[in-house]
């Protein structure tokens, strides 16, 4: 049990209103959000960002929406692996980055829930950028990333096999030893490499952050230009 994650998840559940269409993130912090949301018994429905979240929603009785027929969401709630003072994020530690980014982009409001220790001065300082790669392109993409100075680790599953996302893709965890000097430049550069399906830099998407700590405290941050 993590008090810090629970506090953040429960605070996010309080933001939900009857009738809302939600984006339902992925991860251990989101698990607390889903529990608290189900306990409220509201009439809501959401697009899940992973098979794991979809399964948990079915168990909890949270109605699911098909992303194919959902043009907009009122509120998305998701975790993060790092966030900076401007609410720019690194995500994808749980491998759900592609669907998470699609869902976040559909939402009018995107609330990040995390523990306070995930606040960083600069993205990439504590967590590599997960790069989701179509398996066919693993070699070429790996070579391009290495040429650009990234140190790569191909993600593996519990059995040591190449990890596969819900979309059937692999993940290269890419660390820039010198740090990511300009996330906006890296964002575009990564997205343009043929074979990259998605990457874990989430820029200009989050509107608010709810950050819990182990003493039960909650820090609220908002992006001034988006709320
Ligand atoms: O792919 C997974 C996601 O981006 C998660 O939201 C992120 O890794 C944070 O997960 P957790 O809340 O378990 O730390």
TrEMBL record:
One of its GO terms (biological process) is D-ribose metabolic process. InterPro entries: NagB/RpiA_transferase-like, Ribose5P_isomerase_typA_subgr, Ribose5P_isomerase_type_A. Its EC number is 5.3.1.6. It is an enzyme of class 5 (isomerase). The keyword Nucleotide-binding does not apply. Homodimer. This is Ribose-5-phosphate isomerase A. The gene is rpiA.
């Amino acid at each position: 049990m993590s008090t810090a994650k629970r506090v953040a998840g429960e605070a996010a559940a309080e933001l939900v209103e009857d009738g809302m269409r939600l984006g339902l993130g992925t991860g251990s912090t989101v698990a607390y959000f889903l529990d608290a949301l189900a306990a409220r018994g509201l009439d809501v429905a959401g697009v899940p960002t992973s098979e794991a979240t979809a399964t948990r929603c079915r168990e909890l009785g949270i109605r699911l929406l098909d992303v194919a027929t959902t043009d907009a969401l009122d509120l998305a709630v998701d975790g993060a692996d790092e966030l900076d003072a401007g609410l720019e994020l690194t995500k994808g530690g749980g491998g759900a980055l592609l669907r998470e980014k699609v869902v976040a982009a559909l939402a009018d409001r995107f609330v990040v829930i995390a523990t306070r220790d995930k606040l960083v001065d600069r993205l990439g300082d504590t967590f590599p950028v997960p790069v989701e790669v179509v398996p066919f392109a693993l070699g070429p993409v790996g070579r391009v990333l290495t040429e650009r100075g990234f140190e790569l680790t191909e993600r593996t599953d519990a059995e040591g096999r190449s990890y596969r996302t819900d979309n059937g893709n692999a993940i290269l965890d890419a660390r820039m030893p010198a740090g990511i000097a300009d996330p906006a430049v890296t964002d575009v550069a990564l997205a343009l490499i043929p074979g990259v399906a998605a990457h874990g830099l989430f820029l200009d998407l989050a509107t608010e952050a709810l950050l819990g700590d182990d003493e039960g405290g909650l820090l609220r941050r908002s992006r001034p230009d988006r709320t």
